[in-house]
Amino acid sequence: MSISGITNTALSEMRAQATRVGAIANNIANSSTPAYARLNTSLTAVASSGVQAVVSPTASDVDPATEVTDLIEAEQSYKANAVVFETGADMWEMLMSIKRD
């Protein structure tokens, strides 16, 4: 995989996790709303472009413990992909430095 492929995959995963956090925030904000359908986010691999988040309503109730756990998981995944993105950007910068010399 190329450096740009690595950074694009990490960026798509960060976008997907941001979408997931938005769904979690919506669930928490509407947890006491009558007849609210909890939003569930599923991540699917997309050929050559990384990951895509798909948000869909479910029939389950909002459980604050589940939401907090999902939020922590999304945060950790976002951070890990941010490190991958930064490493790819550093590699790209080093490659461009070598090319100029």
Count of alpha and pi helical runs: 2
Fraction of helical residues: 55-70%
Instruction: Assign an overall shape.
Output: elongated
Give the termini distance in whole angstroms.
25 Å
Number of strands: 2
Give the H and E element order: HEEH
The whole-number mean of residue pLDDT values reads 92
Task: Calculate Rg over CA atoms.
Answer: 17 Å
Taking pLDDT < 50 over at least 5 consecutive residues as the criterion, the unreliable ranges are none
The domain tally reads 1
Give the strand order, joined by hyphens, for the main sheet: 1-2
Structural class, judged by helices and strands?
alpha+beta
Major sheet: size, sense and barrel closure? 2 strands, antiparallel
Can you tag this structure with a few keywords?
single chain, about 100 residues, alpha+beta, two-stranded antiparallel sheet, about 65% helix
Question: Could you give a quick summary of the protein structure above?
Answer:
This protein is an alpha+beta fold.
Structural summary, described in words:
The protein is α+β, with helices and mostly antiparallel strands and 101 residues long. It is built from two helices and two strands. It starts with a helix and ends with a helix.
